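How it folds:
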Amino acid sequence: MRISLLTPALALMFSAACNAQTPAQPENKAAAGQAGDGTFTPSRSRPFNTSTLTSFDEPWALTFIPGGPWALVTERKGKLILLDTRDNSKYEVSGVPTVSYGGQGGFGDVVAAPDPDPTDKIHPIYLSWAEEGENDTRGAVVASANIVINSMADQIGALQDVKIIWRQSEKVTGRGHFGHRIAIAPDQKHIFISSSDRQKFDPAQDMNSNLGKIIRLNLDGSIPADNPFADKGGVTAQIWSLGQRNPLSIAFDRDGKLWESEMGPKGGDEINLITPRGNYGYPKVSNGDHYDGKPIPDHASGDGFLPPKAWWNPSISPGGMAYYDGRLFPQWRNSLLLAALSGQALIRLQIDGEAVRKADHWDMGARIREVESAPDGSVWVLEDGENAKLLKLTPKPQN
């Protein structure tokens, strides 16, 4: 994971100074459809109050369970925590699978599944984690499960019926770039999974691998007949889009469009609008370059690859992302809220059709791992690392 010593304000000054001493960027750096030139402007003030609810040990994902006061948080070392949002009390869930912890690996995403009876004590969910393989290899998996919540029992939360429905097509060495974010489609019939390249580069363009791809499956893990490459069979049939590096969040907007945040190479973090059969270029093209200094060709008109809708240089290391359409912040409706790790920020991007505009960039003073919109319209933010705070954002009173 990238770690930056620059605050957003200093990063902006540094970027401006560099631009003043170097030739202008090639025109294709701001190819059609991209938002701006990769820079950002920190917002002058926060329109929200921040309250600390509790803390977690290396949290990675947060989801709210429909129909009740409960939320779930994954901790990368392998714990699933049930949170009572009424008093912020925490309970460790039993029955959690063993995860491969280390580097960027461990427990990953958790999302609530379509629930036919939210008032029941049994709630369907999806989980992801890094799984050990042979010869020091590992890969990401996604599973369906039921969380049983019984406040009258000694073990208030228990995981049952865990069933792996998807695996990365090959386990490889290294502990980076798993991705394994999950989103339920608006039709409530399909599940989308982000699968990173595992820092192996070429698999992102290999149609016989599901690394470096966005995956679309039925809720039970079977392959939809209308997937763009369904007729190819095998792993290829899972693929919805390709050419992704390290997609660390996917989210649907109210119109059913799928957006992705991607941790790119150096100076190439991205927001993409994901379309079936779309090829987003990595590692053949990018607005960034490899960390060893080797250049990557820029996006260029007519190159056959889809350019990002927004990108950042200096990098911000995007983490989780949520679509916001709530009532507490009406000025934020139809926006993407993006967590920034090295950027230590919460970023808002206003959606306008198939484009986005960099609207706000708030310095949070800590690495931000995850952001979610709560049922009441408040925004919940998870910091990254040990003793990471869970923050609740609510509007500041208007004069």
User: Anything to note?
Assistant: The CA atoms of residues 81 and 223 lie 31 Å apart.
